[in-house]
Design a protein that fits this description.
CATH architecture of the largest domain in chain B: 7 Propeller
CATH class of the domain at 53-130 in chain A: Mainly Alpha
Number of domains of chain B: 2
Distance between the termini of chain A: 29 Å
Helix content of chain B: under 10%
Distance between the termini of chain B: 52 Å
Strand content of chain A: 5-15%
Structural class of chain A: alpha+beta
CATH superfamily of the largest domain in chain B: YVTN repeat-like/Quinoprotein amine dehydrogenase
Largest sheet of chain A: 3 strands, antiparallel
Keywords (chain B): Chromosome, DNA damage, DNA repair, Nucleus, Phosphoprotein, Repeat, Ubl conjugation pathway, WD repeat
InterPro entries (chain B): Rad28/ERCC8/Ckn1/ATCSA-1, WD40/YVTN_repeat-like_dom_sf, WD40_PAC1, WD40_repeat_CS, WD40_repeat_dom_sf, WD40_rpt
Protein name (chain B): DNA excision repair protein ERCC-8
Strand order of the largest sheet of chain B: 1-29-28-27
Oligomer: heterodimer
Structural class of chain B: mainly beta
Shape of chain A: globular
Pfam families (chain B): WD40
Main location (chain B): nucleus
Largest interface: A-B, 44 and 54 residues
Largest sheet of chain B: 4 strands, antiparallel
Radius of gyration of chain A: 23 Å
Number of helices of chain A: 12
Order of helices and strands of chain A: HHHEHHEEHHEHHEEHEHHEE
Strand content of chain B: 35-45%
CATH topology of the domain at 53-130 in chain A: Arc Repressor Mutant, subunit A
Radius of gyration of chain B: 23 Å
Shape of chain B: globular
Number of strands of chain A: 9
Number of helices of chain B: 3
Chain lengths: ~280, ~400
């Protein structure tokens, strides 16, 4: 009754991870000079983070490079000059293993003003990440010559520069940033603000409707490909090599990062590569 | 390891350092061992397990058929192969057995003379271990999901009870009645846990997606509600404001020092909170599959330098490093859903029970024997640990 089958490949992978944790414990934490370990468990967790303090700056640049890589997977010809390149936060989780570190570095980038984060709306957990410079340039380019140009410029210079939130509410807009009601209506009209509740708005990316439509279509198509295969699983290399239907407008790698990061599929290491199995929940 | 021993011997290191390093190493290599078994008594799924804190010797388990079993975990046979036997059972034939499934069992925190069990038959019974008869029965109006008595309390003997009713009831063991009601939740209370640091602090989790922290001495209501967005109104929609999870919150566990609280919810997330401020530490554990309609009972290791959380996920137990959010390993072995798990802090063993009516014991992998020991045993010729199945049954002599 006590004999259980185990997958050797999975065991090898967990053994490596456990070996790394055990080495940390026995050889002392990296970055400490042999002083006695702090007693509470909370500081023990902090000790692991202290070990990578040295590469924290490196870590943020790392995240930036990954973001650029993901954005480069968006097709050039579909992308007009009106929409900035969008990456989703959970796509980074498929590139980097430590999610907490990814979150932390991304928050740092956001506080420095390099990236902006938006709630996309179709999923309460999906957060879109764009580079701030790219966003501002594209929005201003779209507004040239239109009546809404003035309020939009004012908005970009004041609200985006100061607060890092994903939504604003009425009191903030009227009092802190001194927007008039009519200006707010114009901002909503040109797509920079989207209604959330009575008196509060999400910040949004103008003209991003097409992106969202293609993204959801592509995600459904790729998940459908995996689900239709035998046992609802496919090797990642096979999936990359498959010919995509016309529903999938983006590069398939973009969608693979998305479904792996959002944990819609389970990643299983096998001797033939990574296997993606549809996770039904 | 030798370095640690030398350091401790010469006084260079704190003795605690060796203990914690070795505990962490042992907690990292948990696996199923053919030499350790727990006797199978339950006929149905096992809902809850509790190991007593005084000696760590006796384990209580409560099943879906209302049966409560007490096991002896210590190995008194001289052999490595050991089955944890059931010492006594409150079986279906007993007059006082619960009518429906037992949801939570807990030993009396100060000695093993008493234990408390609560069940879907709307009662909570305080049992005398010697006679296996209930010394006290508390009646409730609704199904009882969970209860807990504070493990460190000296000044009070309150049992917090979570039922289908949104009001959390506090029953006093000394007087035998419900003396206080904590109002504030708007849904069923799926889990209650006392803080292991302060004897008056209680955390409760409910189907209205909120987790509240209470000081039971205060009459006016909860201290605060845990908010997953840390009070930032910009990130949440208005329905999700002031909630700990985006679904039902069904699991609570304090870390050993009581400074942090782990919560799990049906939105497949696990969150770590600071108990002092109620702040979300934003540690990202990824997707923690959670489909339980009732409370989820999970455990956190104690005494290691890196704390681990053992969370039942489907038919396996996921081991997460608490402060970094990393998934260390998945312990696979059960045939069906795992409902509860309990960590034995002295031996770094994990006991998990599930719907397949098995309790599995996950033991740290024993160190391989030294080369010298092997040579000695070969020279000595006595093979004490040889499995009789491998012994030769034939003899080469002609007369036999």
């Amino acid at each position: 009754m006590w004999f259980r089958n185990r997958s050797y490949a999975a065991e090898w992978r967990t053994m490596n991870r456990k070996r790394a944790l055990k080495c940390d414990t026995f050889c002392g934490k990296r970055g400490r000079s042999g002083a006695a370990e702090p007693l509470p468990a909370a500081a023990g967790g902090g000790g692991v983070a202290a070990g990578d303090r040295g590469d924290r700056v490196g870590g943020a640049l790392d995240i930036k490079a990954s973001l650029e890589h993901i954005m480069s997977l968006l097709p050039g010809k579909l992308w007009s000059d009106t929409v900035p390149r969008i990456a989703l936060k959970h796509q980074l989780y498929s590139l980097h293993r430590d999610r907490t570190r990814v979150d932390r570095h991304l928050n740092e980038l956001r506080e420095q003003g390099d990236v902006l984060m938006f709630q996309l709306g179709f999923d309460s957990e999906s957060v879109a990440v764009v580079f701030a410079a790219d966003f501002k340039a594209k929005v201003l380019a779209a507004e040239v010559g239109r009546a809404t140009q003035g309020p939009v410029e004012k908005f970009l210079n004041t609200v985006l520069a100061s607060c890092c939130d994903m939504s604003v509410d009425e009191t903030k807009m009227l009092q802190e940033f001194l927007f008039a009601d009519s200006e707010i209506t114009q901002l909503v009209k040109c797509g920079v603000l989207t209604v959330k509740d009575a008196g509060s708005w999400w910040l949004s990316i103008p003209n991003s409707g097409r992106f969202t439509k293609y993204f959801i279509q592509g995600r459904k198509a790729v998940l459908g490909m995996i689900r239709k295969s035998k046992y609802s699983e496919m090797l990642k290399s096979d999936l990359e090599g498959r010919q995509t239907t016309s529903r999938v407008k983006f590069h398939i790698q973009y969608h693979i990062h998305d479904i792996v990061g959002a944990e819609l599929v389970d990643c299983i290491e096998t001797t033939a590569g990574v296997l993606l199995r549809f996770a039904d929940s | 390891m030798l370095g640690f021993l030398f350091g401790r011997q010469t006084g260079l290191d704190d003795p605690l350092r060796l203990k914690r390093a070795e505990s962490t190493r042992r907690a990292l290599c948990l696996e199923l061992n053919p030499d350790r078994n727990v006797e199978r008594i339950h006929g149905n799924g096992i809902n809850t397990i509790d190991i007593e804190v005084i000696e760590g010797r006796y384990m209580l388990s409560g099943g879906a058929d209302g049966v409560v079993v007490i096991y002896d975990l210590e190995n008194h046979s001289r052999k490595p192969h050991y089955t944890c036997k059931a010492v006594c059972t409150v079986g279906r034939s007993s007059r006082h057995v619960h009518k429906f499934s037992v949801e939570t069992v807990q030993w009396y925190p100060h000695d093993t003379g008493m234990f408390i069990s609560s069940s879907f038959d709307k009662t909570m019974k305080v049992w005398d271990t010697e006679t296996l008869k209930p010394a006290e029965i508390f009646q409730f109006v609704e199904n009882v999901y969970c209860h807990q008595m504070s493990p460190i309390a000296r000044k009070h003997s309150l049992i917090a009870v979570g039922t289908k009713n949104p009001k959390v009831q506090l029953c006093d063991l000394k007087s035998g009645s419900c003396i206080q009601v904590l109002q504030g939740h708007r849904g069923e209370v799926l889990s209650v846990k006392w803080s292991p640091r302060y004897e008056y602090i209680l955390a409760t989790a409910s189907t209205d997606s909120s987790v509240r922290l209470w000081d039971v001495r205060r009459a006016s209501g909860s201290l605060f509600t845990l908010d997953q967005f840390n009070g930032d109104p910009s990130k949440s929609s208005s329905e999700a404001a002031n909630t700990a999870h985006n679904g039902r919150v069904n699991g609570l566990c304090f870390t050993g020092d009581g400074l942090f609280l782990l919560t799990t919810g049906t939105d497949d997330r696990m969150r770590l909170w600071e108990t002092a401020t109620g702040k979300n530490t934003l540690v990202n554990y990824g997707k923690v599959v959670n489909e339980s309609r009732k409370g989820l009972k999970f455990a956190v290791s104690q005494g290691c330098s890196l704390e681990f959380a053992f969370v039942p996920c489907g038919s396996s137990v996921a081991v997460y490093a608490v402060h970094s959010g990393e998934l260390v390993t998945m312990l696979k072995g059960h045939y069906s859903n795992v409902d509860c798990c309990e960590f034995h802090p002295d031996y770094q063993e994990l006991y998990s029970g599930g719907k397949d009516s098995n309790i599995l014991a996950w033991i740290p992998t024993p160190r391989p024997p030294d080369i010298e020991e092997e040579q000695d045993s070969k020279k000595g010729g006595s093979q004490v640990a040889l499995n009789p199945a491998f012994e030769d049954a034939w003899s080469s002599s002609d007369e036999d």
